[in-house]
Amino acid sequence: MVAQVSYGSCPMWEIPKGAPMGHSTFRQLDNPRDHHAYLELLDETDIDVLYTLGVHPIRNQFWQYPLCNVYRLWQPDELHQLLLGLVKDLLHWLLKYLKARNVKDQFDNRFTSVPRYPELQRFSKPFDSMTSGSWQGKEIRGMIRTLAVNCAPILDCSQDVGKTAAETASDEMVMGAVRALCEFSLLVSQQNHSDLSLAALDNALKRFYKKKGAFRDQKMSKSAKAKVDELLARESHHLREQKIHKIRAAMEVQLYGAEKVTTSKRRQFQVRLNRARQAATIWSDADRRRAIERLEREIHQVTPAERKLFDKLFQHHERQLLQEVRTKATGPRRIFAKKLAQMKTAAEEEAYGAVNMTADKRVQFQVCLSDAEIEATTSSIADADRVVNQLEREIYGITSKVQMRFTKEFSTRLIEFEAWWQAIGVQELRKTIKQRVIHFGYPMMHLVSHISESIRGMGSGDNFTTDISERLHISNVKEA
Q: How many whole angstroms separate alpha carbon 175 and alpha carbon 288?
């Protein structure tokens, strides 16, 4: 509200929406937010640019104070942003993941079986069986110390020889994300920092950013899942056709020769092929008229003499209607069309006989006419292949023997591609769409990235924590 940036955008840095997370030292090409630049864009009405940067196109009242940078008012809050924010979210994602892998009961057993040890907190109930208010900063800190140890034996790939390669890779990603965030949280809680600890802090955050995508399925909502499925259905066919086209083009160069399959000849081939396909899908007026006459003979038993009588009657009725339109005020076109259709029906019954023009026969006639049009405008696979082969011989200058060899090898390669596409290609496309749709750019994730920057600039990673009493030595307070 204060910074007037869109939800999911970093209030301090210009991070592209959907880009991999990481700030300052992690993404050095990004710029800190500058209200002077936004003022110029607002004056020039470059609203699209402001939306791209995640800024609402409204003049912020804080911009008028020269000594106040509204985008630097945000300071890290270890308790609410890290412990009760990002770490708690990680726990929910982790439990969903363990449940999907059918190992949540093992984790709950280890979670409640931590041995007694000084300053090591024990929990008698699983995390999800306790109310949300029961988990405060103290409990989260205690849980972080044993979380990675509780997960490691369960997610360790060496413990289960029956795992698939995908499950092993996913478990390693999840374990890496858990370990990295636990290290980051423990390092932040230190009272004193050095260059070594700050380097370890940055390294842990980088590793978490790299591994956090393992929880994309757990973060995905029902609406996001529906959107992913919709995009997959829309893009899979297009991408598959593109890949097949590339495979065909590469094999054409290999078998036909690069000197024959040049760019200009490819363009000429495509133009002529498009013209041939367009010509094959056009139903001329003469073909339509012949189809109508054939169906009238078959369905309505119309003779040539009856057809001539119908044409004469219909022309007479049409002239009468046109004369009526000229003498009277013209009404809506739909009324004219309705009257013309009625006159046509009357002329058909008078010329062909009411017995031959029943409602069932009229419906049969329309269905057969539609089928005839589809058949005439739809070319078979054999016809399409014949046109392609003919154009290739004319433009590329190849022989039928070379074409037969190409068809055989391309069919084999196409079978291999289809097997790869069903097993791997669709899954890779789904993964790409998920990365595009489901991102981790939300406020807590953004602000946690600035903790190390705050430590370097102010000597502390937390400037206004409400949890400070838990971190003080009570004996020193009493002595003071």
A: 69
Which of 84, 31, 76, 26 lies closest to 459 in space, CA to CA? Answer: 76
User: Hey, where are the domains in the chain?
Assistant: 78-220+440-479, 285-377
What are the structure tokens assigned to 396, written together? 């590329």
Task: Read off φ and ψ for residue 398, nearest 5 degrees.
Answer: -115, 165
Alpha carbon of residue 143 to chain centroid: 36
For residue 462, the Cα-to-chain-centroid distance in whole angstroms is 37
Handedness of CA 378, 381, 384, 390 (dihedral sign): negative
Q: What torsion, rounded to 10 degrees, do the Cα atoms 155, 157, 161, 166 define?
A: 90
Q: Which residues pair with 32 in a beta bridge?
A: 13
CB atoms within 10 A of CB 385: 13
Token pair for 121: 């907190």
Q: What is the band of 177 on the pLDDT scale with cuts at 50, 70, 90? A: very high
Report helix, strand or coil for 397: coil
Reported as a single tens digit per residue, the pLDDT across 395-444 is 888 888 989 999 899 999 999 999 999 999 999 999 888 888 887 766 67
Q: Residue 267: pLDDT above 50?
A: yes
**269 Cβ neighbours under 8 A, 6+ residues apart:** 391, 392, 395, 396
| ∠ CA 178-182-184, rounded to 5° | 120
For residue 425, the surrounding DSSP H or E stretch is none
Backbone angles phi, psi at 13, to 5 degrees: -130, 155
For residue range 281-301, what is the model confidence (pLDDT) as tens digits?
777 777 778 888 888 788 878
Distances (CA, A) of 237 to 36, 179, 418, 426: 46, 40, 12, 10
Q: What is the pLDDT of residue 377?
A: 67
Interatomic CA distance for residues 27 and 257, integer angstroms: 46
